Fold this sequence. Notes:
The complex is a heterodimer of chains A (186) and B (198). By secondary structure, chain A is an alpha+beta fold.
Amino acid sequence: MNVKEKLQLLPGTKKRLGIRVPGQNRFLYLGSMIFGAALVTTLALGQYRDSLQSNIKKIDDQLVSLEQRRDKRAEQDLKLFKDRIELTSRLLSDHIYWTKAISVIVNLLQTDVRFKAFSGDASTAKINIVLQATNYTVLAKQLAAFLTEDGILDISISKITTSSSGFLETSLEIQFDKSKIIRKIK
Amino acid sequence: MALSIKNLIASVLIAISGFLFWTEVLPTYGQTSNLKTYITNRSELLSARTVIVKKIEDLNRKRSDRYIELQRLALITPESKNLPEIISMIEAMFSRTGNMLGDFTIGDASSPGKALRRVFLEISSKGSYRSSLNLLADIEKNIRIFDINSITITEDPQSQDTGLLNFQIRGDVYWLDQNALVLEQSPAERIRSGEELN
């Protein structure tokens, strides 16, 4: 019997079955997509980081050049100049004008009243006046006149005596508001 | 290709992706966030400094333009005590107003370390009511500031017929110590003005 005519139970060559199952590559595609996305993101973020770093370098360079442009001595001079102006402005605004105080007091002076002495102290904001008046009514009017002035805060009166010439003599202590009596109105 | 090999490759790719995500993407993302904040801060600093430098340049230019006017400040508060100038100034005022200059005391009334220094003056004089008022007005208008802290006007008992008054004033004249002014600046101000940068 010929060999070819014999029954062959096992195949002579190994042959894979080419059965295609739909969606069998899905996992591979998914993996590739995720990998691609990760790769692109890594590269893009790297580029973005590099551009940010280059921006920082640019800003730092600008800061350095700005710093080199500064004239520190001139700045110091300006600062001193500003302080000087502030000090001078303060001095000018606090400048004391006794002519104003005297003018206020004299304008309130009543007839039949005479000043014997006048003294003022800016630090305590007080004016002391030794005055003579012809009688008590005149003296009372004088006190009332002083109290009509806005800048006069309080008046103290000492012992009233009668002089040899018949005048009443006393001394007044006037407490005043510095801003209204010895400073210029701004 | 066998399905198992495809699955294996896919798994390896996903694993590499995960690795890249954890080791590259996440740290870089964090870095970029920090860098963005840093850039914002530096940009703000740069624009603030640019504005300041511009302002300083403008101020310097204006100061140069108005140099003569600003020199008058030195007359209000000179940079030295200048006692001879004070004496001649007082003498000139009294002779202008007709008051007779009597006793005259000059002393230093400055607080130590302060930039604004004071010269104390105590002056006694005699004059009429009008001349005393003129003298006060002259002192108040003087370019070098003279603050009268206390004033006393009394009748002169020896010259009651002539109506002369005893006139006494105490006050301060000022001068500016530039060295003390520099020292009065706080360290923060000195940093701002550039002294301690770099």
